Amino acid sequence: MALYRKYRPATFAEVVGQEQVTRPLSTALDAGRINHAYLFSGPRGCGKTSSARIMARSLNCEQGPTSTPCGVCDSCVSLAPGGPGNLDVTELDAASHNGVDDMRDLRDRAYFAPAESRYRIFIIDEAHMISNAGFNALLKVVEEPPEHVIFIFATTELEKMLPTIRSRTHNYPFRLLTPSAMKGLLQRTVAAEGATVEDSVYPMVISAGGGSPRDTLSILDQLLAGAGPDGLTYDLARPLLGITDISVIDDAVAALAAGDKAAFFQLIDAVVESGEEPRRFATDLLDRLRDLLVLQAVPDAVAAGLVAVPEDRAEAMTNEAAAFSNAQLAHLASALNEELPKLRGASSPRLLLEIMGARLLSAPAPAAAPGPSGATAGVHRLPI
Ligand SMILES: Nc1ncnc2c1ncn2[C@@H]1O[C@H](COP(=O)(O)OP(=O)(O)OP(=O)(O)O)[C@@H](O)[C@H]1O
Ligand SMILES: [Mg+2]
Ligand SMILES: [Zn+2]
């Protein structure tokens, strides 16, 4: 079974990185302040459907409503991840069931008392797909629901939600995970799987997953599937993720710091010859410059989770950052950022990479003098 399905959270405490939502919902559950219509919005794969199911489980636990469902009553067992479900909790995918007839059917079912639980709960996924006519059929029951009915709408597209629904629900916004929250989730999953993963693999997987827990767990899943007896190593993961080798970026940064044009052009040659994506190289270099900028401003950025690299890289990167003045790094990053879009679909990426290199290296490269005067000295020598 796919990792992201195997490890679906079963309680709000297990939902990672959505405290802005799970904390107030838990408080409301424990205080018995129950609303009759909720709206969970946010990016794909961040825990909306999982949280809607957790909400249903928390509301209908025999010991509940509670933020800590007992896990052993009939309702908790049937609503656990992978459980059979029960008659009182209905999930409807509005992407495929969004018409008037579907909504009428749902409305009619809402007026029946629950079969065995406290509440009859309707989870309506992709709720922005409900048609206007469909929602009109539902409007009255959402507006004045019977005491025992709760609606939980979920959507990736809050702007497309009918205002009539939005205004009648309490909205809880989900968001993409921060790298440090994601690392926690990955480490927990790796431990549960009894797998071994090199620390340097995490930042690559986190960056490839783009902040979505589901996408990130899928990537981890694929990589773990191919891991040998040594576990998941950097050397195994990097080519699969198509990420430029850290040492290549290290060399590029060193060449930039030294203003060494020959070294930089040789590096470009090696990148192109190795068949790596030139755009990828430029993107990864830009990411590194960004990390160095942050490290210059916040010396403990790695520990603070602002820069997602393994702890053992922190010192090397701090040294890299110290080789530039602040103005120089800012100039390099913004020049690279401007060049980057030109690489998309270019017929001669090599040429463009070389022009990019020439532009980056056209600035004189003063080594950072210690102290703030050194940083300012750099400013005057830059042709901006
Ligand atoms: N915040 C989270 N904490 C832990 N795991 C998560 C979280 N968000 C997502 N996941 C993982 O991703 C899987 C999919 O999450 P879920 O279906 O809840 O996302 P969703 O927001 O409803 O996505 P979609 O918008 O595509 O419907 C879960 O089974 C779980 O493994
Ligand atoms: Mg969903
Ligand atoms: Zn229970």
TrEMBL record:
<dbReference type="GO" id="GO:0003677">
    <property type="term" value="F:DNA binding"/>
</dbReference>
<dbReference type="InterPro" id="IPR022754">
    <property type="entry name" value="DNA_pol_III_gamma-3"/>
</dbReference>
<protein>
    <recommendedName>
        <fullName>DNA polymerase III subunit gamma/tau</fullName>
        <ecNumber>2.7.7.7</ecNumber>
    </recommendedName>
</protein>
<dbReference type="Pfam" id="PF12169">
    <property type="entry name" value="DNA_pol3_gamma3"/>
</dbReference>
<keyword id="KW-0239">DNA-directed DNA polymerase</keyword>
<dbReference type="GO" id="GO:0009360">
    <property type="term" value="C:DNA polymerase III complex"/>
</dbReference>
<comment type="similarity">
    <text>Belongs to the DnaX/STICHEL family.</text>
</comment>
<keyword id="KW-0547">Nucleotide-binding</keyword>
<dbReference type="GO" id="GO:0005524">
    <property type="term" value="F:ATP binding"/>
</dbReference>
<dbReference type="InterPro" id="IPR012763">
    <property type="entry name" value="DNA_pol_III_sug/sutau_N"/>
</dbReference>
<feature type="domain" description="AAA+ ATPase">
    <location>
        <begin position="34"/>
        <end position="177"/>
    </location>
</feature>
<dbReference type="InterPro" id="IPR003593">
    <property type="entry name" value="AAA+_ATPase"/>
</dbReference>
<keyword id="KW-0548">Nucleotidyltransferase</keyword>
<comment type="subunit">
    <text>DNA polymerase III contains a core (composed of alpha, epsilon and theta chains) that associates with a tau subunit. This core dimerizes to form the POLIII' complex. PolIII' associates with the gamma complex (composed of gamma, delta, delta', psi and chi chains) and with the beta chain to form the complete DNA polymerase III complex.</text>
</comment>
<keyword id="KW-0479">Metal-binding</keyword>
<dbReference type="GO" id="GO:0046872">
    <property type="term" value="F:metal ion binding"/>
</dbReference>
<dbReference type="GO" id="GO:0006261">
    <property type="term" value="P:DNA-templated DNA replication"/>
</dbReference>
<keyword id="KW-0067">ATP-binding</keyword>
<dbReference type="GO" id="GO:0003887">
    <property type="term" value="F:DNA-directed DNA polymerase activity"/>
</dbReference>
<dbReference type="InterPro" id="IPR027417">
    <property type="entry name" value="P-loop_NTPase"/>
</dbReference>
<dbReference type="Pfam" id="PF13177">
    <property type="entry name" value="DNA_pol3_delta2"/>
</dbReference>
<keyword id="KW-0862">Zinc</keyword>
<keyword id="KW-0235">DNA replication</keyword>
<dbReference type="InterPro" id="IPR008921">
    <property type="entry name" value="DNA_pol3_clamp-load_cplx_C"/>
</dbReference>
<comment type="function">
    <text>DNA polymerase III is a complex, multichain enzyme responsible for most of the replicative synthesis in bacteria. This DNA polymerase also exhibits 3' to 5' exonuclease activity.</text>
</comment>
<keyword id="KW-0808">Transferase</keyword>
<dbReference type="InterPro" id="IPR050238">
    <property type="entry name" value="DNA_Rep/Repair_Clamp_Loader"/>
</dbReference>
